[in-house]
UniProtKB/TrEMBL annotation:
InterPro entries: Creatinase/aminopeptidase-like, Pept_M24, Peptidase_M24B. This is Peptidase M24 domain-containing protein. CDD domains: APP_MetAP. It holds the Pfam family Peptidase_M24. Residues 159-344 form the Peptidase M24 domain.
């Protein structure tokens, strides 16, 4: 008996997550880009573009490696090219309906092969993804209904697992032990741990603290960036084992006030460079000093990349309804970060767990430090 692709997907425990409705909209968005450029085809080659266009397919093997697939979009259809040793799994578990699968030897050149599989008689070189990076970023901004549902589910699970793990932490727990527990929970949720950071009290000055064997001590920060079906949820939480100092509690309140000002600036039609100017002003306004924005990136739009893009003075993308963001203002010994989405009723925090202690800041529930 011949086994169908659907049967294989059921047996493997995974089927391609793509929504046919969402994919049709994404394809039209790309065709609109081609129309505007007067071109016939586009070659997609990065993790961000591929997972967005395929609507959640996994196109990696090594988290540190290049994608093991490329996609040519032309007016005749969508063509995915992968290596021969990946093709069976891609077909069974990751290939959306309506996408034609092609394979090349494992030693072949994906981009060259993908450029050649389009409409017969079309000799035009496809547009490179880098040449329409801004247009593709704009196409990703407004999350579609099924994307929003998947993102909200992942974000809530990440918020819950970080609550579970940090609630069991003790001063003698090491940073490696904490991130090991976080990694296990992320993987068990069917996600990939893209970033895991932790600092105990002896290393609280570091903004990007890769874990060490140091014990947590009296307070600690944990950061998780987890990807599932192409989408990345980002979260930071703090825990302490005493009442904290007056200076710490004051700094925590002030960094939440900085974030509140950023949220206020995140409205439809706002340009990222102008939000960035507001971020810089907010640090000074809340007593952190005018140079704090230089000590760490400030976040930006989120979704199929950790930040899409990181906000800077040169980022001129315009905020749209339905867009997701992760802002992460930080100061000496403090940082606040959640994944949020701009909805019709305002910003909705996606990485929220009702079990985590919170305080109301400018009408929104924001995470406090968990005191154990």
């Amino acid at each position: 008996m011949t086994q169908t692709t659907a049967d294989a997907s059921l047996l493997s425990g995974r089927a391609a997550p793509a929504s046919a409705e969402d994919r049709a909209i994404k394809r039209q968005r790309v065709l609109d880009i081609l129309d505007a450029k007067g071109q016939e085809s586009l070659l997609l080659t990065t993790h961000t573009a591929l997972t967005w266009y395929l609507d959640g397919s996994r196109v990696h093997i090594s988290l540190a490696g290049d994608p093991i697939a490329a996609v040519l979009v032309d007016r005749g259809g969508d063509h995915l090219v992968t290596f021969n040793n990946e093709a069976g799994r891609i077909e069974a578990e990751e290939l959306p309906s309506g996408v034609t699968l092609h394979s090349v030897p494992w030693y072949g050149n994906l981009h060259e092969a993908a450029s050649a599989v389009g409409l017969p008689g079309t000799n035009a070189v496809p547009v490179a993804e880098a040449d329409v990076a801004a247009e593709l970023r704009a196409a990703r901004q407004h999350l579609l209904p099924n994307e929003s549902t998947r993102y909200a589910s992942l974000s809530a699970e990440v918020a819950a697992l970080i609550t579970d793990v940090l609630s069991t932490a003790r001063p003698e727990t090491t940073e490696f032990e904490l991130v090991s527990a976080l990694a296990a929970r992320v993987v068990a949720a069917g996600a990939e741990p893209l970033v895991l950071l932790c600092n105990g009290s002896s290393r609280s000055s570091f903004r990007h603290p890769l874990a060490t064997h140091s014990p947590l001590g009296r307070r600690a920060m944990a950061v998780v960036c987890a990807r599932r079906d192409g989408m990345v949820a980002n979260i930071t939480r703090w825990v302490r084992f005493d009442a904290g100092t007056a200076e710490e509690r004051d700094a925590e309140a002030r960094i939440a006030a900085v974030e509140a000002d950023i949220f206020d600036a995140t409205v439809p039609g706002a340009r990222l460079d102008r939000i960035f100017a507001e971020i810089k002003a907010a640090y000074a306004r809340h007593g952190f000093g005018a140079d704090q924005w230089e000590q760490h990136h400030q976040g930006g739009p989120a979704g199929y990349a950790g930040r899409d893009p990181r906000v800077t003075a040169s980022a001129t993308d315009t905020v749209v309804p339905g867009q997701a963001f992760t802002w992460n203002p930080s100061g000496p010994g403090v940082k606040i970060e959640d994944t949020v989405q701009l909805t019709e009723s305002g910003l909705q925090v996606l990485t929220a767990d009702p079990r985590w202690p919170s305080a109301t800041v400018n009408g929104l529930q924001r995470p406090a430090t968990l005191q154990l």
